[in-house]
Amino acid sequence: MNTAPPSTRTEILAGVSTFVATMYIIVVNPSILSQSGLPFSGVVTATVLLSFFCSLMMGLYARNPIVVAPGMGLNAFFTFSAVKGMGIRPEVALGAVFWAGVLFLLLTVFNVRTALVRAIPTPLRYAISVGIGLFITLIGFENAHFIVASPATLVQMANFHDPIVLTFMVGLLLTAMLVARRVPGAILLGITLTTALAWPIGRWWGDASAINFGQATLVSWKGVVAAPDFSLIGKLDLIGSLKWSLAPVIFAFAFTDLFDSISTFVGVAEASGLQDEQGEPQHLSRSLLTDAVATTLAGFFGTSPGTAYIESAVGIAQGGRTGLVAVVAGSLFLPFLFLSPLLSIIPSLATAPALVLVGTFMIQPVTRIRWTELDEAIPCFLALVLIPFSYSITQGIVWGFLSWTVIKLAVGKRQDVPIGLWIVDAFCVGSLLL
């Protein structure tokens, strides 16, 4: 990874790359939340507004190159667990999101969240970084249908006669060559080239394969202008969401967002060197406050909790290091209040090579883990593998933290379990019970 001081051009290219890697949320988030009864167009507007304002706050206030947007996983919990599973009205669930954000703000103001981050043992930070890198890689392979589900073996390699898989392989090799040659804007150029390569699918060849992605072609125009829908702004039910029966929902939103953001800040910092003199993620307090504001605003705008995005590693791998990356990426969300149909131009296949290669950069800290010290190696290994294997950052760090505490106590190293980690463990146990 390039360690030279970034130029403005590099920062802008990194911001564009980060946006391209994260902009899928503009479509994916509404598609999930609309199943809870919220209007699709309203959630699009809420998603864009939250991503714009909070990414700008992350760039200008926290000065970190990290995009903030509605979190994946959190939107699934909102729809399938809170609304459909518990029968909560969508407006009440939005209120629960708001109160989870308020809880975050209180924890941040009193530096509780910062203390929790600092309680994470350094070896586990390395493991979390590597685990997130593997998770991003898995997402890339999945988006390209390079790895697919199998009833016999759980997962398997795809059919290499599939035009989508072949296009991905060519795009991956082209992007890898550009990155290896340190071509400026390599990842963004790779995404562009892969999009161009995907254009013939469904037109000249591979109709059936393209239909598996839910459309006749992978790259297509579906209009240009769509008016924004502000109907969800302020529609949250603040009073109805304060019932005691909804406390587990608020706690679940708060806990999941807490560890998603912490793991993202820690993992990205370890992989990129964006750390302060104490080895902590740079501008940590301001970054956590930004994340707390994002969750609070999410309930007001009409979407699931906002969180820092692991896909920001794409821009960091491009050489981005300052808040300008987040400002550029966040600003690029805003036009899609009116131009959301243009998102169909870049398919998930086109960003898949970039996501796979990000894993190359984020796996580097694995060499810093003392694998011969089993009381450290075992918890790190569990955290590292469970993040991609469980398809959940939260599950990986939960079992990493709990196993660290249990094993350290078992070998008589209680001094390696700080008080803050006991608090983290309590949250971990609570999440498993919920």
Principal-axes geometry comes out as: globular
What's the mean pLDDT score? 84
- Derived from helix and strand composition plus strand pairing, the structural class reads mainly alpha
Reported for the largest beta sheet, the result is: 2 strands, antiparallel
Cα radius of gyration in angstroms = 21 Å
Task: Report how far the terminal alpha carbons are from each other.
Answer: 40 Å
Main-sheet strand order equals 1-4
Roughly what fraction of the amino acids lie in strands?
A: under 5%
**Ranges with pLDDT <50 over ≥5 residues?**
208-214
Order of helices and strands: HHHEHHHHEEHHHHHEHHHHHHH
The total tally of domains equals 1
Helix content: 55-70%
Number of E strands: 4
Pfam family, one: Xan_ur_permease
Transmembrane segments: 12-32, 38-60, 67-86, 92-112, 124-148, 160-179, 186-205, 345-366, 378-402
Subcellular location: Endomembrane system
Protein name: NCS2 family permease
Question: Would you mind describing this structure in some detail?
Answer:
The structure is a single chain. With 434 residues, this protein is mainly alpha-helical. The chain has one domain. The chain is built from 19 helices and 4 strands. About 2% of the residues have low confidence.
